[in-house]
Write a structure and sequence with these properties.
Arc Repressor Mutant, subunit A, six-stranded mixed β-sheet, 11 helices, 41% helix, elongated
Length: 310
């Protein structure tokens, strides 16, 4: 409940000031929610549907609020409502009440966690995506211990099946069915494409070691377009791979998020010298939540933080 001491208004009250019941009275936050919804929806029927009430109940709530404030808050015009100047003044405070209520509800509806999550992630999920995930976990569940492993998707799947990981986010070809797809990103050729790709010459490649779906995808993309290739360097970690590309050893494929996070990194800027490599999908899989009660809340945060950034 919110104790309102005074109300600013810009027009003459519709009822005498002596009858104004707002001073030193407690206003039900439900009335504030109703008023915000009424402004957003623009009609009593839509507001009633949103609040799971009857239209008559919403009208009664507005009448009650107008009686308490002693002001006319809305005007009805052609099946829609419009706020008066007093209504616009009240809307500012009403929105603050709604925001505070939502913040309180979110804070105390989340389940605080203890325990451990073993989380495996593909190198394609870079810092720009991991940061909001770990930040939200830290905020919502500060007592949860998270152990992260970064490796290729095939190894993540094997570890999940063996029970040594609880939740994984891997990468797959566009349209594969390894798990629940969280996001889909465009693939980009990286490296000094304009100088390294020459007609009639084999395309020099910098690759992750087998097995990895991206390696096979590079071979098939080039082969289907009639290109020959040669592997100049193999690197078993993402740091060495990036260094080899920057040193001019060859080209490979990165997902677009990795390029956006480092725009100066050499990549194909629409030269048309190489075929369109398509997209990559990032999928999630997890062991049954019954084995670990922390899995379900963790998965919920994982869905919201990764999916909302697309």
């Amino acid at each position: 409940m919110f104790l309102v001491k005074s109300v600013c208004a810009s027009q003459t009250p519709s009822v005498p000031h002596s009858e104004n019941q707002l001073i030193n009275r407690i206003i039900d936050p439900v009335l504030m929610h109703m008023f915000v919804y009424l402004h957003e929806e623009g009609s009593f029927s839509a507001t009633a549907e949103r609040m799971h009430l009857t239209q008559q109940a919403v009208s009664a709530q507005l009448k009650r609020l107008e009686e308490m404030t002693g002001r006319t808050l809305v005007q009805r015009c052609h099946q829609r409502i419009a706020l008066t100047r007093d209504g616009e003044a009240l809307l500012i405070s009403a929105r603050q009440v709604v925001e505070i209520s939502q913040r309180i509800r979110h804070q105390f509806s989340s389940v605080p966690l203890d325990g451990l999550i073993r989380f495996g992630v593909t190198p394609g999920i870079g810092p720009s995506l991991l940061f909001p995930l770990l930040s939200e976990l830290r905020r919502a569940h500060p007592r949860l211990e998270v152990r992260c492993q970064t490796t290729h998707s095939s190894q993540l799947l094997a570890k999940l099946d063996a029970g040594s990981l609880d939740v994984i986010v891997g990468a797959q070809r566009d349209g594969d069915a390894n798990g629940e797809v969280l996001r889909r990103e465009r693939l980009v050729w990286v490296g000094d494409v304009e100088n390294l790709v020459r007609p009639g010459s084999a395309v020099p490649l910098v690759m992750l070691p087998s097995p990895t779906f991206l390696r096979e995808h590079i071979f098939s993309s080039l082969g289907n377009a009639g290109f020959k290739w040669t592997v100049h360097s193999e690197c078993d970690d993402s740091v060495s791979l990036r260094v080899a590309i920057q040193a001019g050893w060859g080209i490979t494929l990165f997902n677009e998020e990795m390029i956006l996070a480092e725009p100066s990194f050499p990549h194909d800027r629409g030269s048309g010298l190489l075929p369109d490599p398509g997209h990559v999908e990032f999928f999630m899989r997890f062991n049954p939540a019954g084995r670990n009660p922390s899995i379900a809340p963790f998965v919920g945060i994982l869905r919201s933080t990764l999916s909302l950034q697309q």
